[in-house]
Every structure is written in C-alpha cells, then in structure tokens.
Amino acid sequence: MEQRLNFSNIPEVHVDKDPALTSFLSGMRRVVQKDRSFVQYKNRLICTNPSWVRDHIHEMKAYKHWESDLTSFIDTLLELQTEDGFFYEILTSKNDGHTTFVNDDCLLFEGDAAYIRLEMEADVEYLMVEGAYTAYQATGNTEWIKKALPKLERAMEYMLSDEKRFDQKHGLVKRAFSIDTWDFTYGYPDTNRRIEADMPMSIMHGDNSGMIDAMRRLSALRLETGDQKKAAYWENKAREMLDNLIKVCWNGNYFTHQVHLNHPGAEGCDESKILSLSNAYDINRNVTTQKMTDSIIEEYKKRRDSGVAFAEWFSIDPPYPVFFRYEAGQYINGAITSFTAGELMRAALKNGHESYGYDILCRIRQLYERDNDIYFMYSRDDASNLGGGPSGWGSAAILAAFEEGIAGIEDKGFLFGKLAFSPRWALTGAKSAEYLTGYAAGSRYVRTCYELFGDKIVISLTSPSETVDCHIMLPKGAALKRALVGGAEVSSAESKTNEASYADFSFRNTPGDNTGTGSWICGVTNDIVVELK
C-alpha cells in the first residue's frame, strides 16, 4: 500500500476474501468528511467537524488520522473559557434559535458568530479533555498541550465544585433529567436548556464515566509533561469517582439510566429497567470490571434476541411512553443509533465477545450496502432513516471499532510510541489482510500485513513504536506453539477470553531506529511469526 500512502487514504484495508470491505471503510470515512467545514473567527479559519463540540470530538475518533488541523476549534473554545471555568459548546450564527434557549452567561456574540453553552449539558468539559488529549496524541505538540492543561484542569474543577454540576452527597456529576446525554429536560419545552431552581435533577452514569476517563487522561498528560504530583491528584480523583459511580448507579446488570435526586422521575417508569446508550461508552472508558462488561453485553444480546426492534443499538430501551414531544421509538426516545452500534462493537471485540462484535460489524455493513450511507438514527421497525444528527458520529465510532477491534491497532501512548497490537483477522476468515493507518498531523503511520498459513500466522508490522504489546487472535481450534520476532523466539503465553484464544508477547524497538518515507515517519518493520499447534 506504500505507493498510495497519503493522509486522504487512511485508514485503509485490503482483505483477500472480502474486497468490498475496502469500499465500506472508505464509505465510513466519506461520511465523516462530509461533516467538515470552516468558520471565520476574527482573523483565522476554524476547522470544525461539525460545529457542536460534542459531535466534533466524537468524530475525532476517525478524522484524527487524516486531518491536518486538530486544534483550531479546541483552541478557540479554550480561549473563550468563561470566568466560572466552563466552555461554550456550539459555534453558530447569531440568528440561530439556540441563542434564545439560554441565559446571557451561557452566550457570547462575536460579530456574526455566536458561541453557546446549553447550560443543562454535563459532558462538554470532559469531552474537551478528550479532544485535547487526542490532538496531542496525534501531533506530539508538547508546547501546545502544556498551555492547554491549566484551562482543562480549571474546567474539570468547575465540574467537581459548582453546585449546579456536582452532587456532594453522592460525589457524582448531575444534570437536568434528560434522556442519557441529550439536551432537553423532562417536563420542560426544548426551548429551555437552562438549569433552574425547580428543575428535576438526576445523576447519569455516562457523564460520570466521561469524567473518570477525562481525569485519567489528565493524569497521563501530566505524567507526559513531567508533573507527577498533578498526575497522582487526577488519578486519585478518578478512583474516588469510580467507587461512587458503581455504588450509586450499578444495578447488578448494567448502569441505571438516571438516578433521580429531587423528583420521582417519569410517571410509571422504572429507570433501573432502562438500558441507555452510555452503557457502551462506559465499557470503552474502562469503568467496568470484566464481570460488569460481560453483564452489559449479555443484556444487549438479550434485547437483540427479544425482537422488539431490528437491532439492539438503542438510544434507550424500553423507551418512555412519551418524553417531551417524542413518543416511544421516536428520535432519542428509543430509536436505533449508529454510534451505539460502533461503541458496542468496539466494546465487544476488545472484551471477550468477539463473535458478537463481528456480528454487529456485519449488520452495520448490510445497512451501509443497502443505502450507500450510514444514518445517525434508524426507526426501530424498518431501519428507515430518522436523521436527527450528524451521521459522522456513528461512522467515526465504527471506524474506531474496526481499527482497534479487527485490525488491532491501538495507540496506548502518543504518536504510536506504545502500541497495543491485537489483530482479530481470524474472525473474518481472511487468509491475508493489509491495514494502513496513521496520523497525518504527526507524520506517523502504522502498516500491517497479515497472512495465515496452515501452521503459522506471519505478520509484517511497520510502526514507530518503542514498545509493542501483542495479543494476536488464534484461529478457532488452534493453540500457541511459540512466537518469534525478527526470527528470534520471544517469551509468549496463550490466553483465553470468553470465546477466543490469543498469543501474548511483547517486544521493543530501539529508539532512534525510525526511518522515513518522504515526510512520514514509518519506523521499524518487524516480522512476527506465531507458530500454531
């Protein structure tokens, strides 16, 4: 694939028995790219993908690979951070109706542009941390992240201290009673996105798993910049909140949708019966034990098999009889979402439910091949397009699930310095496969070439990584004999998940061995052989 190497092609896949897979991934990339636009701010152009920071950062899971500008939108929001410490989330025109949904302290006009914070939202600050972390991971711009960190930390401290945001009794973040992470409040018109004294407030598990994830990212960034004291502080904060999250929100099978604080909730509805989309995010944010992960995924499988909808990638299930103007199955009140599919696929593939994860991939591909597109939301019965948001959000989640869960490439550090390599091509039945990914902004790429023979797996891995931790899925019925890297045997062991066996071993590249192809740093090529018995 080297002759085609450029950022517009990554990630790229070629599989011997499945040539259409290339078109599928290209289609996912195309959907994300359609959400890209530029907005003028003062004397500079801001690149948005799209212009709500939530969508922009969720879609970063994909465009971090090919986009050259990963910071202009984040920089602008950092620059405009409020005195209280919170961030704006929407960049729009001054005539946008959303400008009337909030009070003046959540609104800023700059010429023809408007910046808005929908006050009831509880995910903006932790998503900004995720976005800045991802931008640094893909660029390696140390000076940039050093300047960003104090503002990010200030925003997180705001979320942990402001009486509108933090429930001191339970030690968890709260929000106005909404459907999962959405932005309108039960019993109020959707033109009111404020937090007012009499509003129903609740604890939503996904807000808190996002906060825990962000605090761990801050800890990693502080370690990276040499501040061990602050790194320990954020790690301790994450640990405290994780304990509180499990104590308050875990119901024995999955996370309860909303834990209500000052109200009884929707009439006749039991929140502990509602499975909401953030359960998939919770797994991918590493707040669940293996037992909890198994339980959540088994619950999704049960609901798949129940036949209540064409797929189990619910926003919530069961839906409320009505939530604001949305009846059961409409929009976020129970529709099927592509981003839940992507997050659930990644969670299943990486956590011992490989066949289920692959099943989700196959069903998503069927939808794409039917429509030549992926939609944000689908109707529960006939899988028709319900719209409702940017399709790139779901496509980005699907691309990330494929990269980490099938191709098995996960950057555990920065600029692929530490690589977790967990290819699962055995799921696909492929005898040979190639995969190329990288960071255009950081001029790094990783390439793998996989071949399966009768008694061995042979992989050529090119990466700039100093350390590589391998967790290579074995074909069904095969066992590990030994592993070799560069012709030399390495210490290895066989491990098992619920469904599959893996060869586990690690190796190091010598720092400074990296070589370049043009402006791209492609690193060292290692020949990996896993002998089978």
Give a verbal description of the structure:
- The structure is a single chain.
- Helices cover 34% and strands 24% of the residues.
- The radius of gyration is 23 Å and the shape is globular.
- The longest helix has 22 residues, at 228-249.
- Helix 1 (20-33) crosses helix 13, helix 5 packs parallel to helix 7 (205-224) and helix 7 (205-224) packs parallel to helix 9.
- It has 13 helices and 29 strands.
- Strands 1, 20, 21, 22, 24, 25, 28 and 29 form an eight-stranded antiparallel beta sheet that branches. Strands 18-19-23-27-26 form a five-stranded mixed beta sheet. Strands 4-6-5 form a three-stranded antiparallel beta sheet, with no helix packed on it.
Topology, element by element:
Elements: E1 12-15, H1 20-33, E2 37-41, E3 44-48, H2 53-58, H3 60-63, H4 72-79, E4 90-93, E5 107-110, E6 113-116, H5 124-139, H6 142-159, E7 166-167, E8 172-173, E9 175-176, E10 201-204, H7 205-224, H8 228-249, E11 258-260, E12 275-276, H9 278-284, H10 290-306, E13 316-317, E14 322-323, E15 326-327, E16 336-337, H11 338-350, H12 354-371, E17 377-378, H13 391-407, E18 409-411, E19 418-421, E20 432-439, E21 444-452, E22 456-463, E23 467-473, E24 480-485, E25 488-490, E26 493-496, E27 501-508, E28 515-517, E29 520-532
Parallel strand pairs: 19-23
Antiparallel strand pairs: 1-20, 2-3, 4-6, 5-6, 7-8, 9-10, 10-11, 12-13, 14-15, 16-17, 18-19, 20-21, 21-22, 22-29, 23-27, 24-25, 24-29, 26-27, 28-29
Helix pairs in contact: 1-13, 5-6, 5-7, 6-7, 7-8, 7-9, 9-11, 11-12, 11-13
